[in-house]
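=== Structure Prediction Worksheet ===
Name of assembly: unnamed complex
Input type: mixed (protein and possibly other molecules)
Chain count: two
Listed entries:
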Amino acid sequence: MRDALEFEWLGIPSVAVIADALTGPADAMRALSGMAHYPYVVTPFPVGALDGSGVTERARDHVDEVLRLLSRRDAPTPSQTLGDTASQTLGDTASQTLGDTADLVFDNDDDAEAAFAARGWTDGLPVALPTPGRVAALLARSHRDRDEVVVSLPTRNGLDATVAQVAVNAVMAGVEPRHFVVVLAALDAMADEQFNLHAHTATMAGAQQVLVVRGPAVTALGFRSEDGALGPGWPSNNRVGRAVRLVIRNLLRSVPGEFDRSGFSHPGRFGWCIGEDPRTPWSLGEPDSSEVLAYATTWQASIINHDQNAEALLDEIGLAVRAACHTNWLHRAVASDSAFYVARPFLFVTGAEHARVLVRGGYRDIALLRNAIFERLTRDDPVLRPVAVASASNIHFLYIHATGMQQTWFFAPFQSHALVRRLLP
Amino acid sequence: MRAMAPPVDLASPVRLALVANGKPNSVELLDALAAELRVRVRSIEVRRYRKASVSIAPEAADVREIAEWANAVLAAVGD
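=== Predicted Assembly ===
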């Protein structure tokens, strides 16, 4: 849709073909682009699964509509008319979202709840009241101009997030003032075009945005990196993760009916922030620097295996990940034809027991470990296709000091993104 | 609100840019549509473009060429 709009703005009549499953985000995009009436051709989802004759038949079904939209530019189509109501609603919401943050602070719960409901805000859980004092306390720790834009997505023109608006949402998530710099750094990372935030907050795959905090800040700011680190119960992790997701939902409008077209969605979308444990044998960065890493994942695979032999354990991890990638369209036959392929990261989260086995088996050197996994993911196999990972250096290991169960998780990447990191001040 | 571009005059030569976004079957669907359009439009010339990824904008050089040459664009596929 965006490509067609861009050419339309250059004065060239343009037509986009959009699957019926994606009319919601398409309508949101045309509304925010100032062309709420822009018509497009709607085709049944999925096009990607059609065979040759199916593609030909689909073209015959749509060619007259293409001609009509190119040559007659005044008559609304059924899809256009249906889209108008949604577009108007979105336009109103966007306008409210961009309002001065004075409209976003409250001194009582009832007013706040009513205002947030009117804007389509929050994630379904109760929020902390963004009072002027609480918002000011966060802003005081940022040392940044309150009106500075932190995130702005080209595909959602008119929707962005300023430091002050982020502070409001961080208060709502329960973020302490000392953690606000982590929220801002995470959003700085997510604003990098290589992170491709629009795509994985809109996709039908329902991708999740995972933050990793690493370095001295893990201990200093109380981020959980031990047993239970991937789940609930840890205010630093859970609130920072939630603040980022509230920004994505409330300010960038990744909600159903607007820019979120996920089918299943995922509980990780309440927020997902993990600390790298300082005892890691394979750190994700330099030991003396604190930083936050942003990663986008679509699904996870757990490998529980009690083998004490490192080679056998690596074989099992490779088999599990390779089988999952084979069945989930993350193999080279379908997922290597993209500009993001060379940068696509693959994240493994490894607990204490598997790390012990691997280190004892000679894999303290991260380069050796990466090569061992890469070889198992891509070597010839009579059944399983090679995983769509470009090189060994794209493989990353996050260590959490999770004890007892011998377990590793594979976080399957959203295909079109790169791992992005930002230093903490 | 932004205005739409003027309509294409199908009685005059049509110079159509096909912009495939890289989704599976995007190229195939555009080629099939172009084949059908050739049957219906008296004078039509087609050039094909393909983005490196669905998630990024078309190459600047491609945009310039399309802006200079084309009088119609067909983009696919949001899928």
